[in-house]
Automatic annotation (TrEMBL):
SUPFAM superfamilies: OsmC-like. One of its GO terms (molecular function) is peroxidase activity. This is OsmC family peroxiredoxin. GO terms for biological process: response to oxidative stress. It holds the Pfam family OsmC. InterPro entries: KH_dom-like_a/b, OsmC/Ohr_fam, OsmC/Ohrsf, OsmC_Ohr_Peroxiredoxin, Peroxiredoxin_OsmC.
Amino acid sequence: MKKTGSAVWSGGLKDGKGFISTQSGALDNVAYGFNTRFEDGPGSNPEELIGAAHAACFTMALSGQLGEAGLRATALKTTADVSLEKIDGSYAITAVHLTLVASIPGATDEAFQDAALRAKLGCPVSKLLATEITLDAHLE
């Protein structure tokens, strides 16, 4: 399976602008630029898209892990905070912190934490990212 994302850009780094789209049309010419990445301008940026992708991937992986343990969540809410830092003159994604709040009837904290860890390690996006990935997982 292959899925496609695309971007177009015109202009310089600081004064230019770009647009991001996805094959599915979920994103269709969404604006991005220096001001959306390094300032608080309207639009998107690669780091928030990586965060959304990682949160979605991890949450689906966790649902699978819970199913294997005979558990079914009523709610899994994940946030992925992606850290972009300047190191030695260039930018790098240095960490992703996943925060999960879950409602899982009948789950013990031990079974929940085990499933969450396996999902964090097994999620394809986690495997893609060569950075530190941390997790705070809480049952409600």
